[in-house]
Amino acid sequence: MTTFFPVGAFIWLIIYLCKEYNKEEPKAVIKNNQDRPQPKRNIQYISNGRVLISPHWLHYFNILSLNESKRINDYTIKNAARKRQSLINKIEDEGENPVASRDIVAAKYYLLDNWAYMTHLN
Question: What's this model's pTM, rounded to 2 decimal places?
Fold first, then answer.
């Protein structure tokens, strides 16, 4: 009986370990992200309390009419802002105001800041 107990315990341990090793673990259900519909995430561009359709730089280029300019530097940005401001002052006298003067100031400083950033990258 003394030799049977350790041998029996050893055989039982081997059988137990084999059963535990061969057990299949329940697989977690992982769904692919492509199966689920993704929400549409749009970037909202907001300038002076108004939601813009286009990015800031494009909106400000349109305000200052810089789309046709071949060279853009600080002088052309300041000159375009001055011209647009004088046009705004004339329109305000007539009672129509399609673009506020604060939008022109915001466009001027935004484009000057971007111009300074781009010129100092190198």
Answer: 0.58
